[in-house]
Specification:
By secondary structure, this protein is an alpha/beta fold. It has a single domain, classed as TIM Barrel. It contains eleven helices and 15 strands. It is globular. The model is unreliable at about 1-20 and about 25-35 (pLDDT under 50).
């Protein structure tokens, strides 16, 4: 998620007619002229990007029946004793409107500290305690329902202090969750996937014992720093959840799904695109819609001058291809990065799944 702040663009408007539009999603059959529409379960959480706050807030209200939690991406930890707000942080109209719709408001605290700075906080009991007091102060500043912690500069591997930092983060989460629970607040921890060669910095078992929810960022299998490819695949999801459910109670796990993609060019700048931007670009360039069968992800190529660019992203049909793997593990629910990025067809897919 650290790349989000650096590369996420303000979401484009909804597009209209399309060239070679995606085929319609199948729906359940019923009596002629009748389609049952029971209220969908509240099994989705979603992040609300501050740079698109008004539109994302409206999107949340449109889908309030499915959302149990919204995490406005509002705060950034700068040091042990300082947490700054992004533009629009703490807006009472957003908080009150979401809560009136029955949605818990659990703002996200992220960080982009210099290498080693977060590790120093985590490995010092005094600094950890200072930081926890600072975070609890955030929860008391508004009628929040809890906090979501999304700290990612600890994720580097190979560092000599790896074991100490890993233990320090587990201790931080344990103490923070206890303090939040004492204040009758929810403790949500966002982590990257733990597979055979990734995510070792996270002590999943300790985090799972302490937190109310553990959100796994199930995306960026391929990302801006590598070669073009899908953001996720069913087989990758299977590996992630096989590892996670062995260490974290299933009732606490959320798989956070992407509503965005990457636009690659060999040797050039890779661009972040929301679903809306990707589809608008596909239509503009006249590229046919294609869902890659192996990965369950849409992709297309297009020419920009002498460059051939490749786009991989995610839409409702792709998520529908991935959900059987997620359902197999009977976890708590799904998350979405991020509101107003997504294919509108995603919501009935999540309701069915």
């Amino acid at each position: 998620m650290a790349t989000r702040i650096l590369s996420a663009l303000v979401a484009a408007g909804l597009i209209g007619s399309a060239v070679a539009s995606p085929p319609p999603l199948p729906h359940s059959a019923g009596p002629p002229g009748f389609r049952s529409a029971p209220a969908p379960p509240r099994n989705v959480s979603a992040w609300l990007p501050y740079w698109d706050q008004k539109a994302a807030y409206r999107d949340a209200l449109r889908h309030a029946a499915q959302l149990h939690t919204v995490s406005p991406f509002w705060y950034q930890a700068v040091s042990a004793g300082q947490v700054d707000g992004h533009p629009g942080a703490g807006e009472r109209g957003v908080i009150d409107g979401l809560r009136a719709a029955g949605i818990s408001v659990v703002p996200t605290v992220m960080e982009t500290m210099k290498p080693g700075a977060l590790g120093e906080i985590l490995t010092s009991p005094t600094s950890r305690a200072t930081h926890i007091r600072t975070l609890i102060g955030i929860t008391k500043s508004r009628p929040y329902d809890g906090l979501d912690i999304d700290y990612e500069t600890i994720a580097a591997t190979g560092d000599a202090s790896y074991e100490q930092v890993r233990a320090g983060y587990a201790a931080f989460v344990t103490d923070l969750c206890r303090a939040l629970h004492d204040a009758r607040k929810k403790c949500v921890i966002t982590v990257s996937p733990q597979t055979g060669n990734t995510g070792r910095i996270w002590d999943y078992a300790a985090i799972g014992r302490a937190a109310d929810r553990v959100r796994i960022m199930a995306y960026d299998l391929h990302w801006r720093g590598g070669q073009p490819g899908p953001l996720s695949t069913p087989s990758w999801y299977d590996e992630i959840l096989r590892n996670a459910t062995a260490l974290i109670p299933r009732t606490k796990i959320e798989m956070a799904l992407p509503a965005y993609g990457w636009d690659w060019v060999p040797g050039g700048e890779t661009k972040h695109v929301t679903w809306k931007e990707a589809e608008a670009l596909r239509v503009k360039k006249g590229a046919p819609y294609r869902l890659d069968a192996e990965s369950g992800s849409p992709t297309f190529t297009y020419q920009e001058g002498e460059q051939t660019r490749t786009v991989w992203y995610q839409d409702a049909r792709g998520v529908a291809a991935h959900l059987p793997t997620v359902r197999k593990y009977n976890i708590a629910g799904t998350g979405l990065w991020a509101l107003n990025f997504e294919d509108p067809g995603l919501w009935p897919v999540l309701a069915d799944g």
